[in-house]
Amino acid sequence: MTQPETTGTRERILAAAATVLSRKGYAGARLSDIAELAELRTPAVYYYFDSREHLISEVMTVGQRSVLEYVTRALDELGAGAGAAVRLDRAVEAHLEVELSQSDFATAVTRNVGQLPEELQEGFRADGHRYFAVWDGLLAELDAEGLLAPGLDRRAARMLVLGALNWTAEWWDPAHGDFLDLVETARRMARGALTASHPLHPSLI
Amino acid sequence: MTQPETTGTRERILAAAATVLSRKGYAGARLSDIAELAELRTPAVYYYFDSREHLISEVMTVGQRSVLEYVTRALDELGAGAGAAVRLDRAVEAHLEVELSQSDFATAVTRNVGQLPEELQEGFRADGHRYFAVWDGLLAELDAEGLLAPGLDRRAARMLVLGALNWTAEWWDPAHGDFLDLVETARRMARGALTASHPLHPSLI
DNA sequence: GTTTTATTTGAAGATAGATTCAAACGCTGA
DNA sequence: TCAGCGTTTGAATCTATCTTCAAATAAAAC
Predict the structure, then answer these.
(1) pTM of model > 0.85
(2) Gap from A14 CA to D15 C1', in Å?
């Protein structure tokens, strides 16, 4: 979203690559576009990166990692007292924050993982799994508190929720809607997808 | 997903283009790959299509339209007696069917709309809006039956649900999970996102 | 102020992919 | 058999993009 202003050339190229990548896709991201956005001639990129692939790979790694770190930190900051439902709400909010407001690195990842050549996926696949593990942890906490919907296909539920969140990069426009409304709607969806229908009155089921 | 076997050459090229497009993205879809999948030499494509862009554009149009038609028909077949909740469930199922089992046309659309050059989007933008209208209709029906969550940001809710469904193309693998489980989980999510928390016991709220 | 090092660039090379086209193929009807 | 038409192809062209490299520029060290 926002381009950091005064920063080293290498960072500027990396950020430009994230932006172009998230708009044009893996194959469509031209080195010349990236260089132009970073206010350099194309060959300058090679002073900082071995090749186009190395550059793109690093964008992906940074993007994947920043989502993991941002959401993890947000959850950590809640402290030990927070219940599973509150933590789920916070995770939804944090994911949307990093996806929509933080930078183009996150969207570069979500919009391109599926289209990357195999070799490129290796590096950040581990971080991807680690992020899934965070969400699986949230489901486990919900379960421990008796909030998780019984008989739930956990993997499917986790991916559906993350899919809804990731897809926001395709349509959400800060000019068009209020971020907090989006968060509220997304939280409702996540709760609906994961928790039992009547979590507050289990005796009525 | 599945490639129809005995069909006209033009259809074969179109289907091959859908497959390549859904795997490699707009910029990454090479005419040579498409031709190879269609068991032809590259120049043969030009006998049926004016250019790469025309071919891709037609894939998109077909994909967008097939989703619209498939889901619309599924809803129509429910007949007039079906309530809003049942119709929502059917729409979720139908969307997943066409996205995951029908063909690569649908996934070619969902995985590429965001990355297409502006000119290419024109043709099928209208169908996209028509499809959104179908879902807005479902929300209106839920509302009419008093099932819709009060104070809901309808646009956000609609896009979150569709995002979750569209994203399945990125991760769902028929070998890895049961389709009906996925449908059930997705229905739960859609209901959770759209309907009031206690639709059956409104008096308890 | 001059030498040294880091950074950036213009120009050129190499390759891949879209497109054109004339020729070849193969089928159908006389 | 052959003339004609629809279809497919190999070879050639054109263009865009990645990459290399030696030279130019800017910055730093002395």
Answers:
(1) yes
(2) 28
